[in-house]
Structure to design on (470 residues):
């Protein structure tokens, strides 16, 4: 992993958060300290993933970046997961169980990153609705092989800011939780080079519930106070 | 309430958060837009409350403030509550039920502010432990008369920063939740003049659980990342 490029799958990479994540990862190949990587977008239909990969490269070209050092491909979720060392789940919580079941074999020994936030809209506000395990992260932990290193991260970044790679240099904090210290460090290094996030060690996966719960709070506060695309900072 | 001073009771005002709150409230009497007020510190023993009131005035004098316009007194919790229009509960969650039971009659039609965070230390980390109602705020709502206006506020400010009225001008966000819009506005105005906090409308009391849960998260993140007295900002 040192000199080679890290293969990263963004499953559900055709959604808003997924798209932003793909751009921010791909750009790290142009940064001195960036984590060099190849991104594979995963989707239920490989065609949609391939289209998203093409669009991401075009977007980066349109922004004036040299894309010759950037590799973004599109595949089915299971093929993307198979290739990757690190898998990011940018899908809705209710889609998580069937997806993880279908790619279970591809998850052995890999890093699985969950930015997943289970929430529902009640009237005009969003409410956090964690599963019985206490959080999406702990539920995911229970769904995957023992050897999978589950890391909770990237919950509290607005899709709009993530996707706006040129303008958005705002540095918000991203709290990262895992039982696996090495996997946590890898994700913290990725985060450090997102161009809009500063990683904070959030301790164990047991702390992920509060981090997940912040997302509906951010959305509600934004709406109630006439703000937009809120992020969070600790100081 | 317009030209008169608002009477504010800080119950448990001899503790760390209480002390800081008393100083920040008292100083508003010296600010052009501050909410003019008289602070009554409440404690289980009136002597401790009187001593805390004396110390607070001395502290402000030592900092060079003109205390002739500032009134801070000490009383028993129930006497303090009886006098006040607005009551702030700066006590531990497990002390809340017996206290509220003993002062129930004094709470009719008043604003009751809860910065209370139910949490426990498990090993080296703090964990949020909300009661069955979902949050301290909702549990308190269920313990008081129907006419009491419960407002959740001031959960995420470190005692050290709150007490350091001269040096600490850091402006952190304070999320304020209530079903009573008028009471919420009153507390938001108080907050605005704390000198270290910016109020954000957090919507209904149902949202207070996430705000309460932030406190153990802040403490844990501070410890894990070598930081101190963390506050939070949304932007």
């Amino acid at each position: 992993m040192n000199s080679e490029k890290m293969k990263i799958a963004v499953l559900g990479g055709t959604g808003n958060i997924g798209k932003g994540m793909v751009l921010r990862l791909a750009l790290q190949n142009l940064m001195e300290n960036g984590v060099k990587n190849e991104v594979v977008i995963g989707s239920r239909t490989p065609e949609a993933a391939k289209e998203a990969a093409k669009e991401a490269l075009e977007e980066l070209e349109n922004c004036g970046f040299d894309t010759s050092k950037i590799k973004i491909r599109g595949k089915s979720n299971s093929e993307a997961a198979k290739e990757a060392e690190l898998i990011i789940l940018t899908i809705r919580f209710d889609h998580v169980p069937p997806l993880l079941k279908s790619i279970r074999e591809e998850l052995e020994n890999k890093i699985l990153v969950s930015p997943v936030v289970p929430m529902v809209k009640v009237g005009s506000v969003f409410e956090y609705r964690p599963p019985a395990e206490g959080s999406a992260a702990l539920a995911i932990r229970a769904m995957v092989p023992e050897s999978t290193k589950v890391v909770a991260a990237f919950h509290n970044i607005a899709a709009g800011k993530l996707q706006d790679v040129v303008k958005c240099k705002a540095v918000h904090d991203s709290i990262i939780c895992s039982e696996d210290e090495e996997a946590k460090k890898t994700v913290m290094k990725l985060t450090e080079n997102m161009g809009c996030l500063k990683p904070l060690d959030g301790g164990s996966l047991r702390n992920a519930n509060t981090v997940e719960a912040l997302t509906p709070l951010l959305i509600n506060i934004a709406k109630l106070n006439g703000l937009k695309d809120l992020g969070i900072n600790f100081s």
